[in-house]
Design goal:
By secondary structure, the protein is an alpha+beta fold. It has helices at 15-25, 64-72, 86-95; strands at 4-12, 32-36, 41-48, 51-58, 75-82, 106-107, 113-117, 127-131. An 8-stranded mixed β-sheet has the order 2-3-4-1-5-8-7-6.
Length: 132
């Protein structure tokens, strides 16, 4: 069971420029910026109700966000669903035939345990599941 949409990840060419839109024009509050070296990104969190927008700037053009921005110029990158027990959820999804990018959780921004499902088996939408 998914508890809620934890966040929507949006890939951007640069955080400074993106914050001019999301913070200064749209009026969201930026609650922090964090470097997530393992994922080759720098992220900014902007809460919206019980969920968040996660702006993602690549720190390496060969990383997942770097490649995405190079190809598409940015945009909605992934949806993240919050779960209570990520290991159990990964096991269930695998049994149901969903292709996993991560068989085991990794650590993402804010110390969350995260794992990605492959967009080829989720209708072209990159889905992350996360446990906090
Ligand atoms: N959403 C949907 N499709 C995507 C995608 C995304 N975010 N990123 C890549 N793809 C698609 C590409 O469009 C491409 O499709 P086609 O084959 O139809 O052209 C295909 O995936 C392969 O793209 P690629 O550029 O060659 O990239 P890779 O195969 O090397 O990697 C993926 C794709 C999804 C496996 C990789 O990006 C990945 O492992 N992602 C999970 C990790 C991640 O995204 N981390 C960043 C966020 C971290 C965080 O939130 O903390």
């Amino acid at each position: 069971m998914f508890e809620k949409i934890d966040h929507v990840g949006i890939a951007v060419a640069g955080l400074d420029e993106a914050l001019k839109l999301f913070r200064d024009q749209l009026g969201l509050e930026c609650k922090g910026i964090e470097l997530v070296e393992e994922q080759k990104v720098k992220v900014a969190f902007l809460p919206v109700g019980e969920s968040k927008i996660e702006l993602l700037e690549a720190t390496d053009p060969e990383g997942p966000v770097g490649k995405f921005v190079e190809k598409k110029g940015g945009g909605v990158h992934h949806l993240s669903f919050r779960v209570k027990n990520i290991e159990e959820k990964l096991k269930q999804l695998k049994e149901k035939g969903v292709a996993l990018i991560d068989e085991k959780p990794r650590y993402g921004a804010g110390g969350a345990k995260i794992a990605f499902l492959h967009p080829k088996s989720t209708g072209g939408v990159l889905i992350e599941i996360c446990e906090r």
